[in-house]
């Protein structure tokens, strides 16, 4: 059973349990995945589904920042709860040290030695880290290692 199937099963269970918050989040996620399917004109792969989930989490993070800046902790908490539900469908996030290890390997593989090579490093490393690390964090660490 794939990730999308797990989401559908959990959506059905949320309906039965009348868990309105989880139901709302999973319906939105299902819609986002269906939109990706329409865009691709085929069933999305597991990695593409993880990518959709990651982008939904990223939207929640940005909303949390905006609500915190706008002195709306109630809405920020709601977004955090939604983000937790979505995060449960992704593999555990890598630590900074694990990301640095992978980046070091990729830098050696691509023979990168200056910040000019950042694009090549990011292109090589992101497929390995999709859904397991935040792109901004990876970019920051790559810049740090290349300087």
Overview in brief:
The chain has helices at 3-17, 20-40, 46-69, 73-87, 96-110, 118-129, 135-146.
Question: How does this model look, in words?
Answer:
The structure is a single chain. By secondary structure, this protein is mainly alpha-helical. The protein has 2 domains: 3-87, Uncharacterised protein YqeY/AIM41, N-terminal domain (Hypothetical Protein Yqey, Chain: A, domain1); 96-146, Orthogonal Bundle (Arc Repressor Mutant, subunit A). The protein has helices at residues 3-17, 20-40, 46-69, 73-87, 96-110, 118-129, 135-146. Helix 6 (118-129) crosses helix 7.
Descriptive terms for the model:
single chain, 147 residues, mainly alpha, Hypothetical Protein Yqey, Chain: A, domain1, Arc Repressor Mutant, subunit A, 2 domains, 7 helices
Secondary structure: elements and pairs:
Blueprint: H1 3-17, H2 20-40, H3 46-69, H4 73-87, H5 96-110, H6 118-129, H7 135-146
Helix pairs in contact: 1-2, 2-3, 3-4, 5-6, 5-7, 6-7
Low-confidence stretches: none
Mean pLDDT: 92
CATH superfamily of the largest domain: Uncharacterised protein YqeY/AIM41, N-terminal domain
Order of helices and strands: HHHHHHH
What CATH calls the topology of the largest domain is Hypothetical Protein Yqey, Chain: A, domain1
């Amino acid at each position: 059973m794939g990730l999308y199937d797990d989401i559908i099963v959990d959506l059905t269970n949320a309906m039965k349990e009348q868990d309105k918050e989880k139901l709302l989040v999973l319906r939105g996620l299902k819609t986002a995945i269906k939109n990706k399917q329409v865009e691709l004109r085929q069933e999305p792969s597991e990695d593409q589904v993880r990518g959709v989930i990651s982008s939904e989490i990223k939207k929640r993070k940005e909303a949390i920042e905006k609500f915190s800046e706008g002195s709306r902790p109630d809405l920020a908490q709601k977004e955090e709860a939604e983000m937790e539900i979505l995060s449960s469908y992704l593999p555990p996030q890598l630590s900074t040290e694990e990301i640095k290890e992978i980046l070091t390997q990729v830098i050696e593989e691509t023979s990168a030695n200056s910040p000019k090579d950042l694009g090549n490093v990011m292109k090589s490393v992101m497929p390995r880290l999709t859904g397991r690390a935040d792109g901004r964090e990876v970019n920051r660490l790559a810049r740090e290692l290349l300087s």
